[in-house]
Amino acid sequence: MKFKLGAAVAISAMALSGCATITRGTNATFTIETMPSGATVATTNGYGCLATPCTFKMPRKSEFMVTVTKPGYKTYTGSVVTKVAGAGGAAMAGNVLVGGLIGAGVDASSGAMLDLVPNPMKVTLEPEGAPAPANQPNS
After folding, report:
1. Cα separation values, 81 from 9, 33, 118, 132, Å
2. Strands 121-124 and 27-35
3. pTM of this prediction?
């Protein structure tokens, strides 16, 4: 009887957890670097730092705007989006192949199969009074 109960608990635990949720977690580190360093960062999801470079532990499923300021430089605003990561997609495929539809749902809703892009966010600040660049790539 104890074996059956233990087996049922183990099967339930496996069915209720997603592969990506277990292997990747629901949070990711997000880093922002600026040139010059020492800029202040604020995000629309409530994170911030007083001097770059800085790193935050963010929910993988969050999309947000980043504002970078430094006296003597133009304010920079950029966006961070999510995309399905290679490892996240593989974990989702594993869920589907093994028949873990519940696990696939957990991975999709928790954001565990996503990555924040760009990460790290690299920003070159423009001095005030300098002409604005056409495009500033975030790599």
Report:
1. 37, 17, 7, 24
2. parallel
3. 0.66
Q: Which long-range contacts (CB under 8 A, 24 or more apart) does 39-47 make?
A: 39/68, 39/69, 39/70, 39/73, 39/123, 39/125, 40/68, 40/69, 40/70, 41/66, 41/67, 41/68, 42/66, 42/67, 42/69, 43/67, 43/80
Q: Both tokens of residue 15?
A: 């069915």
pLDDT digits (tens, 9 = 90+) for 13-49: 444 344 444 456 778 899 999 999 999 999 999 999 9
Task: Label residue 61 by pLDDT band (50, 70, 90).
Answer: confident
Residue ranges of alpha helices (H) inside the chain are 2-16, 19-23, 86-98, 101-110
Identify which of 70, 75, 77, 80 has the alpha carbon closest to the alpha carbon of residue 30: 80
Residue type, 53: P
